[in-house]
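<goal> How does this chain fold?
<sample>
Here is the protein in question

***
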Amino acid sequence: MLAGLTQSAPLHAQAAQVELVAVPNRPTFASTAETVQRGVFEVEYGFEAAKGHQNINGLLKWGVFKNLELWFLNNPIQRDAGVAGMGDSGAGFKFAMIPQKKAIPKVAVLYVATLPTASAGLGAGASGHSVQMLFSKDLGKHHIDINEGVQFVGRPGASGYDRNYFTAFSYFHPLTGKWGYTGEISGFSRTNAATPATMTLLHAATYNVSPRLILDAGAYFAVYGNLPRVTFFGGVTYSIADLYHLHPARKP
């Protein structure tokens, strides 16, 4: 906001002047501590393609309050080892607790519940929960996201949960024009005997079509773990509308 103004514009004029700006979590595994603007409904959709693995994945976000974002995740199409169908879904929230200030990064907490909606032979086969602490910091034109979390993975056909830990470090820097680069190292610890630890290295390009529309494409490489050697991906983040201001205010 501009400083030094002696008189504020009418509230309806201020609302009309708010520009929608996308806040992408993709294409990295890490999530940003930033939240979408209050009232804004935003979508992230993309695809993954690798040997023995393909999917279409989506994330719907809504800024209920300034620092609270509701999430719904789904994989409407998934194919693994020749088995195709619908993947799991998820629901949760992101809450920003500490704003970025000087040397202090922005801090948020992210909770997601896994909903076992996948077709037979796909998905986790049981409900699960994950909690992550998100840290985001701008250093000039450099942007860094760090995530640390724990995931409780349900056991199909049995009670209780297996547990793993998630760590991610991602980096973004704008390039020429509307282009940008993002890189990441991330991984999960061992979950159980059938699911060993994983680590991936990601490289991607982003393109800002407009402040509310961002495209991405790239690949991530498996350093170790039961993952395809290379997975290619592409996607889009789009701020659809401010649901609190769908209709222009009437003139007095």
